[in-house]
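queue> pop job 88
queue> type: inverse folding (structure -> sequence)
queue> payload:
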């Protein structure tokens, strides 16, 4: 049976998961029990956020051909996933919204696909959406291909017009949804334009690990592609490791894909994507060959991390009350376990403090997904403010810059432009549509991106659409202004009471409501001024026998500002920490240890 391997590239919310649902359904690749909306979003965080975090495989049968579909993350922060899974594919479906056109995350993943020599198939989706402009979008995609350095063959890409939600596609725009009422044209294009892998099953085996998984019954699984030859259950093979010594092993189990499920198989041939068991020590990028014919593939490389945070055990007064895993040993094991499958993440032990670890990732979203996952697993921890990772070349300091695109109603654009300029952003383009929406294109230091999303959503009344991706390391942009306003900090331990909060809310906006346990040093709100303010949220009203009209008015509290994980990370300053437990997210002032107090005193003396 011939095999086609194709990845799907799309920006967040352009309909990628819905399209995969449609292709699985029309080829009857799912059982009745498996059928559901967004079946490829298997993690709770993926369903909640509407983004793909972990790459996944699916397989369908169409006209006697097996088509392996590889779901790629759409956000640049998960580039470690993107770069390796694209290596398993021979072409890509480029899915673009007929209204929004190509967006920053589309640009990032597409550039990786073109570098691998893929000739994408363009799917212009949501053509039935109000305000759609497929012809304009097609021109923008041509411009994007040219900008990314696509060759002549790649520029000659096939185009199909579709509505994944309504289940139709057509090679001709005027026939979409009328005469063409299913998604078969997309599958036909895959058979026509995606090449079958040319290697023969009789060639020497070459299998590379692209992903890792774990099974409670058979242990660690290595997921990858057979680039040459044939692999069978029971084969004695050689592992060529990128991080450890080479090892001989026997394939105990072999799994292929049918629909979205792994199914045990006896053998697989060149071009197929499979999972194998039999090795405990296995790493992404390792090559598996026959012992007598060793020919390793080039190691998988990913872009370096750009943002770092300190993770440490929770040492607040509430430590150990809400989590199952609270020790340094448990935190260390969990973080280093993450690096086994998350190749774009680095974990470094802090030489000054044994209970603290520097965790480096591709962006604040990359790290926040790890934090949220650990919270849900029962971990207690605290993290510092995200910081960018700088480089030094030829005596010059370089820092990471991002390409930023913001779609916002025209009336809010002036305030946003002023803020982006304050954060050292450089405008690259500005365009206002007939619908009254302004698109701002900037390049901006990653430092300037910290906290920007919360500001944009607040200033635009929740209407701004923000998209960004890593561009390059460029010259250091200079001193960046920090948070404008200070914090309201509790000066007492206890439980918040309405009377105290009523008096405090005049001095800023609150993050907590009545009846919430607080401790000294915990941040309970944002000050209305630029300095921190210590307050007592636990102070009860003194009772007397005297009553007077006007002094006993009903207390009216403004609803507390609920802070999400991302908003809290954007809010905290250098001298603050985020305390995370399975039940709560708290902000607090940092307690300095002896070493840090000496360092701070020395810096203050030098500055004075």
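queue> result:
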């Amino acid at each position: 049976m011939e095999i086609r391997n194709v990845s799907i590239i799309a920006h967040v919310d352009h309909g990628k998961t819905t399209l995969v649902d449609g292709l699985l359904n029309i080829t009857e690749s799912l059982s009745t029990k498996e059928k559901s909306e967004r079946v490829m979003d298997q993690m709770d965080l993926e369903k909640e956020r509407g983004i793909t975090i972990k790459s996944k495989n699916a397989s369908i049968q169409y006209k006697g051909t097996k088509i392996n579909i590889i779901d790629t993350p759409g956000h640049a922060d998960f580039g470690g996933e993107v770069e390796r899974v694209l290596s398993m594919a021979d072409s890509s479906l480029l899915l673009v919204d007929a209204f929004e056109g190509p967006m920053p995350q589309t640009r990032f993943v597409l550039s990786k696909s073109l570098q691998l020599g893929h000739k994408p198939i363009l799917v212009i989706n949501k053509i039935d959406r109000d305000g759609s402009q497929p012809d304009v979008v097609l021109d923008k995609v041509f411009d994007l291909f040219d900008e990314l350095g696509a060759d002549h063959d790649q520029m000659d890409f096939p185009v199909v017009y579709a509505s994944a939600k309504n289940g139709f596609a057509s090679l001709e725009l005027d026939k979409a949804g009328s005469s063409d009422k299913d998604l078969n044209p997309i599958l036909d294009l895959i058979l026509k334009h995606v090449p079958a892998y040319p290697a023969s099953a009789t060639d020497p085996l070459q299998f590379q690990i692209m992903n890792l998984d774990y099974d409670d019954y058979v242990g660690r699984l290595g997921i990858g592609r057979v680039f040459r030859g044939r692999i069978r259950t029971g084969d004695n093979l050689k592992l060529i490791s990128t991080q450890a010594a080479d090892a001989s092993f026997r394939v105990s189990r072999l799994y292929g894909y049918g629909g979205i499920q792994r199914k045990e198989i006896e053998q697989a041939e060149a071009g197929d994507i499979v999972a194998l068991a039999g090795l405990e020590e296995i790493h992404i990028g390792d090559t598996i060959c026959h012992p007598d014919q060793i020919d390793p593939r080039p190691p998988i490389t990913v872009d370096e991390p750009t943002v770092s945070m300190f993770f440490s055990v929770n040492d607040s007064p509430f430590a150990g009350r809400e989590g199952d895993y609270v020790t340094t040993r448990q935190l260390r094991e969990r973080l280093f376990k993450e690096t086994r499958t998350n190749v774009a993440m680095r974990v470094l032990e802090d030489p000054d403090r044994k209970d603290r670890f520097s965790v480096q990732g591709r962006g604040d979203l990359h790290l926040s997904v790890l934090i949220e996952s650990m919270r849900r697993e029962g971990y207690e921890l605290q993290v510092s403010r995200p910081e960018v990772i700088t480089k030094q070349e030829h005596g010059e300091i370089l820092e990471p810059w991002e390409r930023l695109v913001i779609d916002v109603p025209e009336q809010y654009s002036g305030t946003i432009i002023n803020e982006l300029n304050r954060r050292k952003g450089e405008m690259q383009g500005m365009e206002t549509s007939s619908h009254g929406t302004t698109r701002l294109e900037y390049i901006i230091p990653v430092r300037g991106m910290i906290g920007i999303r919360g500001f944009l959503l607040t200033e635009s009344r929740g209407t701004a659409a923000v998209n960004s991706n890593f561009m390059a390391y460029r010259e250091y942009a200079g001193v960046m202004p920090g948070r404008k306003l200070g914090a309201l900090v509790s000066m007492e331990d206890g439980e918040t009471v309405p009377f105290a909060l009523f008096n405090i809310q005049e001095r800023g906006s609150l993050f907590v409501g009545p009846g919430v346990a607080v401790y000294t040093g915990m941040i309970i709100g944002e000050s209305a001024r630029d300095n921190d303010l210590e307050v007592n949220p636990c102070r009860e009203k003194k009772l007397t026998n005297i009553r007077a009209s006007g002094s006993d008015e009903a207390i009216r509290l403004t609803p507390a500002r609920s802070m999400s994980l991302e908003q809290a990370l954007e809010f905290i300053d250098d001298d603050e920490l985020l305390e995370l437990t399975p039940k709560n997210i708290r902000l607090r002032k940092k307690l300095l240890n002896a070493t840090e107090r000496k360092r701070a005193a020395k810096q203050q003396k030098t500055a004075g």
